[in-house]
């Protein structure tokens, strides 16, 4: 492959505005693509107020760029690689007002015996959590307290396979994903011909969520059991997930928790309406509590998505202190994908 040609093609793709993901290089064995999104989002909530800023409005706009490629080695092996990063504007007033976040950085192989990847990528259990994490805004909140159940993790080795009979199996290991964070997970799922898919999983990590600054390097095991179901047919998408296990935070060890994530959506023409429910409760850690209902309307027009989402907080005052869990929210957005 001509590396100089690829460099020129990537530069051209990043400064132009393509109408769809662009294949910038292709031959008999190799495909190289560039894509991304530009998304403007505004959030209105009392959760955005601080001691120095009384505004309830917060900009949550972002830009993503993705490059990925595949090279066919033979009929049994195809090598793959992907890199995706996200840019957002900082609000700290510093000279550099752009924050950069790597979302994917991995390579591996797709084989006739299954796929194997290493790097910054989705977890094995993401296959299940994606069933309910479908809304543009208010879904999937219950997955983020454990590095092994979050959408993505660093330094991860993952194996995945799906049979022609509808059986999916994935397993992963996280190797020092972040400071004090190692983990592993596995899922199995089975899809019936009627559009119904059932799954179960387990994930564990050696971590302490938000360790206190005075007890650094103090880690403990957090583990999660998952049960999930999804039904998709004729524009209807229904999904439910239950999670249970234990989590540690600071001086609190092995606190039992329960979590529920529900999604109900209907698509008609270019439109989608959905309702979500997210619930998380740990016995001894009230700051982690989540309890809300989300409603959303989205319109998809080719590469453009226009959406409005509202979150009804169901927590009492003083509960769910992490992030925006204890406040109502309105979020509006417009996304152009390329």
TrEMBL record:
Q: Which UniProt keywords apply?
A: Membrane, Signal
Which CDD domains does the UniProt entry name for this protein? Answer: gram_neg_porins
Which intervals hold domain Porin?
9-312
Q: Name one GO molecular function term.
A: porin activity
- How does the protein associate with the membrane? Multi-pass membrane protein
Q: Where in the cell is it found?
A: Cell outer membrane
- InterPro entries, per database record: Gram-neg_bact_OMP (IPR050298), Gram_neg_porin_domain (IPR033900), Porin_dom_sf (IPR023614)
Per the record, GO CC terms?
Answer: cell outer membrane
Leader peptide range in chain numbering: 1-21
Top-level taxon of origin: Bacteria
What is the designated name of this protein?
A: Porin
- Native species: Photobacterium indicum
């Amino acid at each position: 492959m001509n590396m100089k040609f690829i460099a020129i093609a990537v530069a051209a793709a990043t400064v132009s505005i393509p109408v769809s993901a662009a294949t910038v290089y292709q031959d008999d064995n190799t495909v190289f693509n560039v894509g991304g999104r530009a998304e403007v989002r505004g959030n209105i909530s009392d959760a955005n107020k601080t001691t120095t800023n009384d505004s309830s409005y917060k900009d949550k706009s972002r830009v993503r760029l993705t490059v990925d490629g595949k090279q066919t080695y033979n009929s049994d092996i195809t090598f793959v690689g992907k890199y995706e990063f996200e840019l957002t504007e900082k609000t700290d007033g510093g000279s550099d007002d752009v924050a950069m976040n790597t979302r994917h950085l991995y390579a591996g192989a797709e084989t006739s015996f299954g796929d194997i990847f290493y790097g910054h990528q989705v977890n094995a259990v993401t296959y299940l959590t994606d069933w309910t994490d479908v809304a543009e805004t208010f879904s999937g909140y219950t997955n983020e307290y454990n590095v092994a159940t979050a959408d993505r993790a660093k330094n991860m080795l993952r194996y995945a396979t799906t049979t022609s009979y509808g059986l999916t199996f994935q397993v992963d290991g996280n190797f020092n994903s972040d400071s004090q964070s190692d983990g592993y997970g596995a899922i199995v799922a089975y899809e019936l011909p009627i559009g119904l898919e059932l799954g179960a999983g387990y994930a564990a990590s050696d971590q302490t969520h938000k360790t206190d600054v005075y007890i650094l390097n103090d880690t403990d095991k957090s583990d999660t059991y998952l049960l999930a179901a999804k039904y998709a047919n004729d524009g209807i998408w229904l999904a439910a997930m239950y999670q249970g296990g234990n989590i540690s935070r600071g001086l609190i060890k092995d606190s039992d928790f329960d979590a529920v994530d529900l999604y109900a959506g209907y698509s008609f023409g270019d439109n989608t309406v959905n309702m979500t429910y997210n619930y998380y409760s740990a016995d001894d850690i009230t700051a982690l509590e989540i309890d809300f209902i989300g409603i959303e309307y989205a319109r998809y027009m080719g590469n453009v998505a226009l959406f409005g989402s509202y979150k009804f907080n169901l927590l009492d005052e003083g509960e769910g202190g992490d992030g925006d869990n204890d406040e109502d929210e309105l979020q509006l957005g417009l996304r152009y994908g390329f």
